[in-house]
Amino acid sequence: MSAARISFPGALRAIAFLLFQLVVTPLYAAAMLLMFWSPRLWTFAMARSWCGVNLWGARVLCGIRWQVQGLENIPADTMAAPHIGASTLEAQIAIGET
């Protein structure tokens, strides 16, 4: 089932999306505040859901589409580089490793 695109001029689409976010974001914020006691995985799932709802709104109200190009150029065995967090860097500076 495809979402129906609303055909607004550009400025009206932007205003419609703003109004959409003004309704959706406080609801999600209240839900996130009520979930402070829940497991972190549930909280992340709620945040991911908010992102999905905003992407849906952008697609339907603003007509925004996205796609990934060039994935075939990335080797299958490529791994992400290790991340050095701020605390790790501060510890290295403190002991003079950098």
What's the SSE blueprint?
Layout: H1 10-34, H2 40-62, H3 86-95
Helix pairs in contact: 1-2
**Helix proportion range:** 55-70%
SS element count, helices: 3
Largest sheet: none
Could you tell me the strand content as a percent range?
under 5%
Principal-axis shape = extended
Round the Cα radius of gyration to an integer and report it: 20 Å
Contiguous low-pLDDT stretches (5 residues minimum) are: none
SS content category: mainly alpha
Strand segment count: 0
Which series of helices and strands comes N to C? Answer: HHH
Distance between the termini: 55 Å
What is the mean predicted local confidence, pLDDT? 80
Word description of this protein:
This protein is an all-alpha fold. It contains 3 helices and no strands. Helix 1 packs antiparallel against helix 2. 1% of the residues are buried. The model has no long low-confidence stretch (mean pLDDT 80).
